[in-house]
Design brief:
The structure holds 2 protein chains of 2 kinds. Chain A is of the alpha+beta class. In chain A, 44% of the residues lie in helices and 12% in strands. Chain A contains 3 helices and 2 strands, in the order H-E-H-E-H. A two-stranded parallel ribbon of chain A has the order 1-2. The longest helix of chain A is centred in the C-terminal third of the chain and has 10 residues. Chain B folds into 3 domains: 88 residues, Alpha-Beta Plaits; 204 residues, 3-Layer(aba) Sandwich (Rossmann fold); 162 residues, 3-Layer(aba) Sandwich (Rossmann fold), CATH 3.40.50. In chain B, 35% of the residues lie in helices and 20% in strands. Chain B contains 16 helices and 20 strands. Chain B has a 7-stranded parallel beta sheet with strand order 16-15-17-14-18-19-20, sandwiched between helices. A 5-stranded parallel beta sheet of chain B has the order 10-9-11-12-13, sandwiched between helices. The N and C termini of chain B lie far apart (58 Å). The relative contact order of chain B is 0.09. The chains are: A alpha+beta, B alpha/beta.
Chain lengths: 59, 500
Amino acid sequence: MSDDPVIDLLNTPPKVVNIGLEGFARDLQDEGVKVVHLEWRPPAGGDPELARLLSKLEA
Amino acid sequence: MSRALLTRLRKGFHLDSVALMRIARTVSELDGIEDAALMMGTSTNLEILADAGLLDGEGKTAQGGDLVIAIAGMDSDAAARGLAGADALLDGPGDIAVTNNGWRPRSLRGAVTVMPEANLALISVPGDFAAAEARKAIRRGLHVMIFSDNVSLADEVDLKREAQALRRLVMGPDCGTAIIAGVPLAFANRVPRGGIGIVGASGTGIQEVSSLIARHYGGVSHAIGVGGRDLHSEVGGISTLMALDALDRDVATQHVVLISKPPPCGVAKIVLERVSRFTKPVTICFVGAGEMDMPANVHQVRTLRDAAITSLGQSVPASHPQVSVIGTREHQTYSRGLFMGGTLAAEAQAVFLAAGLPISSNVPVPGAEVMNGAKETGRNLILDLGADAFTKGRPHPMIDPVARDAAVTEALRDDTVGVVLVDLVVGHGAHPNPAQSLAEAVAIIPEAGRPVVVASVTGTDADPQVRSIQVATLEAAGISVAPTSADAAEWAARAVGAKF
């Protein structure tokens, strides 16, 4: 660990949360990279404005 | 018989956009189907469907969380068969899923519980929702790579400022490629690890430079995409500066390369001032920019090829070997560039302008003219067919080159065209065999008398499509393949009269 999270990102292979296209998670898994694929659904009933507001409230 | 449109809604049904486009494509190839679209009912998508004449009935009531299926058939029987086909594909077994040992979290919180050491979120949800997902990830301490486009500039500025305060990196939005510690993310190529670190506002620019480095026995420490707007004045290069600083500190990196379209003066000044303090040599390719005053440790280069050569510690030769790809017949005097890679299209324009040839484009670099319409003819044209205007509701040509390749066939029929210039970009995420698709599109026009076709292939032999096989397929189809995108542009420019 360094004093800077950006340097830490570069120091070891990334551990990835994949949100969206499942093919990207599959490619990473094939590369032997640690990846969790999120079962994503449009939040807030599919209302982007509400989703944006909710993300700002979430800590 | 009359055209019949059938639309259906599946409430609360979600599938990712690539999977949906794949199904739409399969259905549209069925007998009697004129058009087929499967899209989530976001407002952006409903507009696309309405513009295409594919929205009526219950489709109009769709919400962002609903799937709209729209099938236009030659008659109502054909449309009904198309709809049944779409249903069968939607309900059939999909690709093998990534299951995380049988359980798939439905929230970021759940994902981080499964993998507490997670440090990067790769986000490719529809643009309307991407900023919200990125914000949640940043607040949970993750760096983010936003592949999605259609994220507003205001959201980009907000996200990057918040991330900067938390010392988290935002790659994107519209970041097509990255390689972090040897791991290719999204549309990256398989390249060996080495001492060259790349920061790029452009996906295909990073792909071309990293692939050329690999093909010349060099290696890449990291390639960090920052998104096409990062160096705009509003964003001020937040991610570019963070990435450059990190590469300067990174022990694996010995040489830093920066690739971007020309930034505004104020931002360029900040970037140059920052890299002037680096202890490492830096190569900068502002594609389409004129010569600028550079700090002593910085090399400015004109093309992506020259960026790769310089980063490998070699000198850029005064001229590159030229291959004659001619003949242009007397009335075939113009070049038509049809690109999948935006930065490759910009680089080609820069090559033409440097050779004194006028050029028009839908994405003009400084000195090029803005084209008036897609049907323009009788002049040198370079089109980026991956630009938003061409990809609304359609797959990007790197994923599905059919629309680009149809434009190639059309250009070969245009008797003012002397040379057609194209790119292929392979690697993770890209079409499995774009050379075959291009070769078939070219073969439609008999070789005798047709304009010459000059191509470049961005990628490596380690990529799933195997670059050398792609090259051989093109050459067997009578297409001239240049070693780099810059060479291809130079060959094409020479074919229509440029002297190098």
